Structure to design on (279 residues):
């Protein structure tokens, strides 16, 4: 069978939610990833993932290693890691080099410790800041942070970290909005309703977007910051469906499958091109 990356599946995944394509016909290929392997359908890679304790910083690289037009780094938590296959496709399509550094439950921010931000997280944040100050010259810094329960301190911390980085390096910040949520029993529901996944396992748009996306709030009115929102091809309507274009969106309650993330690649590439053109 052809792979998702080969683009041999018209209207597969995010493309099915794009009004620029006629995807009204029933698709004649299977729903992917298989439910038997859905929880392991993860785009994360060991070389892109930083350890917890003691804090470490691992940075991997995607796209061309030389001759690239822009160099960017994507920083964030496990949502950032879940987008690696999208970053890779966008890097190849735009002729960019995109480096990636991720850590569990830890977004890059100047905010102090909270219930969700341990001392090890703060140590990782400092490693990131030091790397940006002394490492490669980046044109853009891509930012992600999962969660819809922000604090004023966290929002302020994002803005402070971004302002410091843009002042020191001249890089432009690109915030990728947090995606909508799936049902808490997402995988179990899919397995129990294999013949009618969308009818049985959808979630209302209000519940999927419940709460406030703190990193998007921080991006509003911030200088040298752009916001990219891919939710138009993740949840284009109401309710939000678990399967779009025969691709299962989430591998658990909040992490996008590698399969679906790959189909987001062309849309991320296009959004980054718009941002870059406006700089």
């Amino acid at each position: 069978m052809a792979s998702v990356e080969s683009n041999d599946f018209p209207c597969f995944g995010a493309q099915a939610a794009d009004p620029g394509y006629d995807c009204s016909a029933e698709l004649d290929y299977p729903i992917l990833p298989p439910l038997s392997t859905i929880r392991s359908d993860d785009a994360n890679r060991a070389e892109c993932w930083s350890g917890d304790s003691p804090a470490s910083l691992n940075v991997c690289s995607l796209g061309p290693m030389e001759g690239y037009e822009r160099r960017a780094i994507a920083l964030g938590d496990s949502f950032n890691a879940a987008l690696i296959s999208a970053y890779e496709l966008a890097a190849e399509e735009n002729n960019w080099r995109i480096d990636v550094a991720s850590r569990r439950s830890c977004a890059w921010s100047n905010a102090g410790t909270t219930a969700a931000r341990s001392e090890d997280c703060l140590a990782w944040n400092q490693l990131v800041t030091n790397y940006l100050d002394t490492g490669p010259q980046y044109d853009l810094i891509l930012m992600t942070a999962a969660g819809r329960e922000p604090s004023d301190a966290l929002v302020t911390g994002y803005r402070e970290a971004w302002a410091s980085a843009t002042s020191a390096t001249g890089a432009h910040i690109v915030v990728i909005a947090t995606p909508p949520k799936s049902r808490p029993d997402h995988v179990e529901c899919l397995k129990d309703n294999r013949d009618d996944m969308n009818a049985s396992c959808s979630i209302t748009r209000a519940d999927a977007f419940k709460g406030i996306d703190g990193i998007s709030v921080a991006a509003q009115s911030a200088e040298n910051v752009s916001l990219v929102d891919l939710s138009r091809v993740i949840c284009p309507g109401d309710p939000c469906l678990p399967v779009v274009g025969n691709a299962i969106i989430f591998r658990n309650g909040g992490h996008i499958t590698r399969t679906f993330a790959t189909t987001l690649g062309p849309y991320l590439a296009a959004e980054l091109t718009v941002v870059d053109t406006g700089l």
User: Anything to note?
Assistant: The longest strand covers residues 70-76.
